[in-house]
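Supplementary Text 2. Reproducibility record for the structural model of the 141-residue chain.

All settings were left at their defaults, and a single model was retained for analysis rather than an ensemble. We include the record here because the model underlies the residue-level annotations in Supplementary Table 4.
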Amino acid sequence: MRLPRVALAALAATLSVSAAQSAVVPSPALNAPVKGWTAVAGMSGPEVVELVRSLPAQTTESSGNLPWCDAAPIVSTALKSEFDEDLVARRADGTQLWGSDLMGTWTVLLDRGDTHCVIASGIGYQDGVDPGAFYAKVGLG
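Retained model, structure tokens:
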């Protein structure tokens, strides 16, 4: 009878350590599928870019029909503090890709000088993945 109790105690100790380790050490989902959505439902990435380019320069409001635009420091600070995202890529068309390996999130912005506007965002970000994969998910490839 004593041996099964010892075996059971060893198993319980092993399971407890494994559970504790998994709670402390994040296990990133390698090769997680990239998913993305534009900032305006029903519009493609290029359509949102064109919409943002047509807005008055001082537009900083968002609604169901408009993406979020705000002062560049406010947008970049929000992405960093809320999603741990950093600037990953900048393209000649004025778009920027921000991503977080920790959170697995990504955001495409349009740089309008003093303001930035969210064009699209998604999940499945990992450092080292070609930025074009994220742009392509929302038709900006």
